[in-house]
Amino acid sequence: MYTVRAKIFLSRHLPPARIFILSFAGLILLGAFALWFPLSASENPLTFIDALFMSTSGVCVTGLVVVDIGKDLSLIGQIITLVLFQIGGLGIITFSVFLFGLMGRGVSFKEREIIQSAYMHTPRRDFLLILKSVFLSTLIIETVGTLILFIRFSRDFPWGQALYTSLYHAVSAFNNCGYSLFSDSLMGYRSDWLVNLTIMGLLILGGIGFIVLHELISRWRGSQKRMSVHSKIALLTTGFLIVSGALLFYFFEGNNSLKNMDPGTSLLVCFFQSVTPRTCGFNTVDIALLTNGAILLLMILMFIGACPGSTGGGIKTTSAALLFLMIWNRLKGHDAVNVFNRTIPQEILTRTISIIIASAFSVCLITCILLLSGGDALSPAESRQFFVEYLFEVISAFGTVGLSMGVTPALNDVQKIAVTLMMFAGRVGPLTLAFSLAAAASKGDITYAEETVMVG
C-alpha cells in the first residue's frame, strides 16, 4: 500500500523535466564536496563557493574557472573535474540508463522520455540502439582524439604526462567543456596544425548532436537512405557559422591580434576562434585584447551555441536557423515555414520563440545582478567597461562556453553564485523549457473570442 502511494506521489511531483534538473543538481553538489576536500587542491584548499563554481562549470561543461586547474588542483582534483565533465556532457540519466541496460534492467517510461527529449527530435523504436551508439561513438572519438594529441604532446612532456594531458584535453574538447591543464589554454599551440585541427574536430563532433552523428554513420553504412530535416538544418547551420565566423573574425582582427602572424597561423586562429565560442572555452588568442567587433561576434556565436542533443549549450543552431526562416517567410508574406520540402509544425516555431526570449531574459537578469553586486567604488566609465566584461561572462556561462575576458577570478561570492546559476540554467534551462512546452495542452484550456493587438 505504502509502496503504491509512494510511486503515485513521485509520479505526480517528479515529472521527467524535474528529474532531469535534480540529476544535474545532485551531481554538482557531489562534485562540489569532492573538490572542497583538501586532497583535491595542490596547496590551499578551495573555498566551498569556488568548489561549487568549478563543479557547476564542469558538470554543465562550461569551462569557466576561478582557479588554475593545472597548478591549483592536485591530480585527484583534476581527475574529479575530468569525471564531472564527462558525466555532465552525456547526462547522468543517460549513464544510469545505459548501466541498467547492461545489467538487464528495463528502462522506465520517464527515463525513456528524458533520454529521447535529450538526444532525439522524434520518438524512435531503436531507442536503446541509439543510446549504445552514443556511448560507442563517444568512446571511439575520445580515444582517437587522445592518440592524435599524444603524438604532439609526447614531444613536450614525458610519455605518462603526455598521455594524461592528451586524454584530459580530448575528453574536455569532445564534451565541449574547455577545461585545460595549461594556464594559457591553447595559446602556446596556436600555430600547431595537429593540435588545432584535432581539437576543432572534437569540438565539432561533440557539438553537432548524437542523433546527427548516428544518422551520418547510418548513411555511411547504407542503412539509412535520407537524413532528417533536423540533421540537414544542424549541419548546414554549423558549417555556415564556422565559415562566416572565421571570415568576420579576420575582418575584425586583421589589424589587431592577427597583425604579426603568418598566413597559416592566422587561418588557424580565425577558424579556431570561430569554432570554440560555440560552447567550448579553449582559446588561442587573449580574449581581453580583442576588438569590440570581435567581442560582439563571439557573444553572438556563444549565444547561438551548439546543436540540440549534443554536449553543448546555447539556444542551439536549429533555433537560430528556424528564427531566421520565420522572419524570411514573414517578409515574403508566408505563414508556414517550409524547408527541404517539409513544413515545420507551428508548435516547434512557438517553442523556438519561447526558448530565445527566455534565454535573452535570463542573460539580462544575471548581468544586472553582476552589475548591482559589483560595488559602488567604480566610476561610471569604469563600470561601463565592466558591463561589457560581465555581459560577455554571462553569455559565456549561458552558452556553456567558458571563454572569459579575464574577469572570472575577480568575481565576488555573490557574483560567483549568480554565474553558477547561469551555468546551471544554460545547461538545463532551454532543454527543460523545450521539454515542458512539448507536453500536450491541458484539456481544460479555455478559448475566448479573438481580438487583434497592434504589434511592430
Describe this structure in words.
The chain is mainly α and 456 residues long. It has one domain. 64% of the residues lie in helices and 1% in strands. The protein contains 18 helices and two strands. The chain has helices at residues 2-13, 16-36, 48-59, 69-72, 75-90, 92-102, 109-119, 127-153, 159-174, 193-207, 210-221, 229-253, 263-275, 292-304, 317-331, 346-372, 380-398, 413-437, and strands spanning 338-339, 342-343. Strands 1-2 form a two-stranded antiparallel sheet. Strand 1 (338-339) and strand 2 form a beta hairpin. Helix 2 packs across helix 3 (48-59), helix 2 (16-36) packs across helix 7 and helix 8 (127-153) packs across helix 9 (159-174). It starts with a helix and ends in a 19-residue tail after the last helix.
Could you estimate the helical fraction of the residues in percent? 55-70%
Helix/strand structural class = mainly alpha
Strand order of the largest sheet: 1-2
**How big is the Rg?**
22 Å
Could you provide a short overview of the structure?
The chain is mainly α and 456 residues long. 64% of the residues lie in helices and 1% in strands. It has 18 helices and two strands.
Topology:
Elements: H1 2-13, H2 16-36, H3 48-59, H4 69-72, H5 75-90, H6 92-102, H7 109-119, H8 127-153, H9 159-174, H10 193-207, H11 210-221, H12 229-253, H13 263-275, H14 292-304, H15 317-331, E1 338-339, E2 342-343, H16 346-372, H17 380-398, H18 413-437
Antiparallel strand pairs: 1-2
